[in-house]
Design a protein that fits this description.
The complex is a heterodimer of chains A (181) and B (158). Chain A has 181 residues and is of the alpha/beta class. Helix content of chain A is 43%, strand content 19%. The radius of gyration of chain B is 35 Å and the shape is elongated. Chain B folds into two domains: 2-96, Orthogonal Bundle (Helicase, Ruva Protein, domain 3), CATH 1.10.8.640; 101-152. Classes of the chains: A alpha/beta (181), B mainly alpha (158).
Chain lengths: 181, 158
Amino acid sequence: MRRFILFIPLVIFIGMGAFLWKGLALDPTELPSALLDKPLPAFELPSLLDPERQVTEADLKGEVALVNVWATWCPSCKEEHAQLNRIKAEGYKVIGINYKDDREKADIWLKKYLNPYAFNIFDDKGSLGLDLGVYGAPETYVIDAEGIIRYKHVGVVDQRVWETLRTVMDQLKQSGKVSAE
Amino acid sequence: MRYLVALMLVFIPLSVFAAIDTYEFKDEATRARFHTLTFELRCPKCQNQNLQDSNSPIAADLRNEVYKMVQAGNDDAEIKAFMVARYGEFVLYKPPVNETTYILWYGPFGLVVIGIIVLVAVSRKRKRHESEVDDLETHLNKDETDRLNDILGKGEHK
């Protein structure tokens, strides 16, 4: 019995070691989204390329889509842009939120690097970004056909992240079909 | 002289001015409330800074939002709820008491209780041990007492 007690510190040490080891792999900058499984916030903002047209949250419904928050001042957005183009080429819908940006610069950007977005919401004051809880571009959301946020990724979308996102989108499409039948 | 002034101006660190916003408050109470709130709310981007001392653009936006809300007369709970609805409980430096934070709030007390239990157990054991030693001496028979005294060098046959 006494012998056994001597091992308690070792057990505690191993336990804490395992705990801290796991902590190393966590990314503390990744915050859980407060809006997960909640509908998109209501908004009314102009379209980026067509300033006359007003976009509302209703325009985002109807189809499972990626919503990508980007800006020309954001270097990581440039990094992920090619991936977004590939995603579009794979036949998935991508909607852009141009966050606190300059219309002209954004226009040039889309001409230069191609435009993967079905349409872009021009959020120059960042009001929609604030309602979405955006804290650093780029951020990417998966929304379902009802416009409910199902997944959030903060940071660059690369091939690996896209595979996760694609799985989420495929599942949503699948369950959408089932419920429609 | 003019060149000297110009040269000195070049070296003024711009960052010094970064986190200073100029807000006009309707009264002192509102100003105080703004300060407490921006002190207690955490910047979502910068991990361990509050809104007050962060230079990041998102912190500036949120300060602005807090400013608008205190000016409009929203109470503290409303403003915090507004932030939590968007950024989650991460933004609160003082987390609310709920299932996920029980361990955070009550864990330390639990540890203190465990510490006291261990302390009591150890001291009891020690006491028992001591009394056992005493008992041993009183339970010696005549021969043993003699031998013991002999060894200790304080017997009758000296």
